[in-house]
Each structure stands twice: as structure tokens, then as C-alpha cells.
Amino acid sequence: MRKILHIDMDCFYAAIEVRDDPSLRGKPVAVGGLSRGVLTTANYEARKFGCRSAMPTFKALQFCPDLVVRPTRFDAYKEESKKIVRIFHQYTELVEPLSLDEAYLDVSHHGEGGSVVASRIRAQIEREIGLTASAGIAPNKLLAKIASDWNKPDGQFEIKTGEIEEFLEHLPVTRLHGVGRKTAEKLCALEVRTCGDLQCLSKIELAEQFGSWGLELYLLCRGRDERPVKVDRIRKSVSSETTLQENVADLVVLGEIMEELRRRVLETVLGKHADRVIKSLVIKLKFSDFTTTTAEGAPHPMKRGGGAELGMDVTRYRKLLAEAWGRGEGKSVRLIGVGVRFADLEGRDQLRLNL
Ligand SMILES: [Mg+2]
Predict the structure, then answer these.
(1) How far is the CA of 171 from the centre of ligand 1 (A)?
(2) pLDDT (tens digit, 9 = 90+) per residue, 327-349?
(3) Both 312 and 189 in a single domain?
(4) What sign does the dihedral 324-325-331-337 (CA atoms) show?
(5) Do 150 and 1 share a structural domain?
(6) Which residue did the predictor score with more confidence, 20 or 348?
(7) The domain that contains 201 carries what CATH number?
(8) Which residue in 80, 102, 158, 309 is the catalytic one?
(9) Can 102 be counted among the known catalytic residues?
(10) Whether residues 18 and 141 fall in one domain
(11) Which pLDDT tens digit goes with each residue over 63-104?
(12) Which candidate, 14, 141, 190, 301, has a CA 20 to 30 Å from the CA of 207?
């Protein structure tokens, strides 16, 4: 039986700012770019006003005029992140960082129960670093990640093997990894709101509705996930793709779908990889005859304060889309993907994300 932890720091960047400047305590605080920028993190006081990560700063200030916006200090956050990972390694060698503030730990071989290990790690982080973390404990990564969100902030939650079925029964499908607004709307039309509802759909029905994503949903809603905790995994890219319900042979329509996917990728980049440098933008198309093509190009040059939003410029993506589309010579498209590739960690200073 596997014991997997997902540990997630509570509004990490903002929490570091508050810890380092006690005059901010109790105030709504966010970290991000000022004039044309977006927020990377907002603390809970700011979230009460509706401020969220990836929200343009000017908009956040409309929601919350007293919001204190601090510039990002990635070097400081990275320092804290290293200390936290060192704490993780005192409990297990199997640590898979997902970003600066989040990691999976496999503690299957630890003598104590997963819940005990999680609370000891959280207590040690608070004692030594002065920040709070939340933890999820479960037999796999999928459930551990959902569980870490359950008693956030500064809490933990365990899903035991015998409790999985009951837990999923009433769990909204939107809690599943990868289920965004579009999938949720489609499921809602099928009167599916919870994982319990989703379990009533057969593999065939799901494949008909969602293609290969449907088969993934079949496993996700049953809490099945065999992925191992991978040590030292560093993301090389982030992407989002969708299999179209019907093949599309219209560049304008493809452009609209592309824009939705681009927004999704941008949100992930800002939320989890804001410290990485974007090396290139990628568009992938699969045509009706199942041939695939990929168009890749440089991001928009980042200016100070521009950040990922500018780097992932929509005009650049449109150009790549047109390029990939042209290679199909009129064939219709069945799948479209949008992504970014990151520079190696060594190359950070070439095109820094200025958030
Ligand atoms: Mg976090």
C-alpha cells in the first residue's frame, strides 16, 4: 500500500512577504507586477475580495483598493523553497517538486503513518521557516493532491483506501485534475456534477463524448492513478490540448479554440512556473488523417514588467497556428494543442519572466 503526501505551501510568495515585513500582517497582500502585470499570488485576506493569481493587477486593485502589491522576489522564494525541500528529504528520498511551493512525497517506507509524517513535516516547516503548509495524504498522487486542498490553509486531510469510494461519491467533478470550465459544462449538460455521477457513464460513452480524455476521466473519477513519485522532475514544458468534437476546417474557429487553450496554459505558467524562462511557443495540430504537425517559435521579447502574458503573445500564437494549418493543405483538424517550452534552468538569465 502506497502512502503518498502532497504538500503545498499556503500562498507561498505572499506569505514570505508578510513574514519578512510584519507590518503587513492581517492586510490583503499580493505579489505580482504593477502597471501591466498580473498577480502571481494573493494571500487569504486578499482572496476574500476576489483577488486571484493570474488576475491583472489593475483589476485586483479595483476589487480591493487597499491591496498591497509587492514585486516578486524569486531569489528569496527559491531560497525558502530549497530549505523546505531539505526538510522533505529528512523524511524520504522520494520527493517530486512540482513548483517552488508544492511537492509529492512517497513515504510508503516510513515507519509511521502518512498522517503522522505529514503533521511532523508541517510542524517542522512552521518552526524552522515560519510559514504554514497544507498536506494531503492518500494512496496515490491524484487523491493526495485533492486532499491537500481540503483543509487549506494550515491543515491536512487523509483519504484512506477504504474511504475512496465514499469520498468520490459527492466530490464535484471540477476538483479533478484537468477538468476545466468546458469539460464541466459538457458534463453538466449530461447531468454529471459529481464523480459519483461520472462513474455511471461507461467507458464507451465517455470516449464518444470526450475522446481519449474520456478514458482518462473514467480512471480519474474512480480515484485510480498509478503514477510513481518521480525524483527531481523538472518540467520542460507546459501544454494544453483538446480533441475537437467535430473536425474543424476553419482557421478562425481554430483561432478561438487556441485562445482558450492559451489562457489555460498562461494560468498554469503564472501559477506554478512563474520563475521559469520561456524558450519557445508551440502549436500542435492533428489532422483528420491523424498526421501531426508542430509549429514552434520564439516568445515575444520580454520587456520589464511584461511577464509571461506578453511573452505568450496571442499574435505570435496566431502566426504559428497559421503556419501549422498551412501544412495540412486544407485537411480538417481533429486536435489542437497549445504550449510553451522552458529554457534549461541554467539559461534563466536570457529571457527572464519579469512579473
Ligand atoms: Mg501553494
Answers:
(1) 21
(2) 999 899 999 999 999 887 643 43
(3) no
(4) positive
(5) yes
(6) 20
(7) 1.10.150.20
(8) 102
(9) yes
(10) yes
(11) 999 999 999 888 899 899 999 999 999 999 899 988 889 999
(12) 141
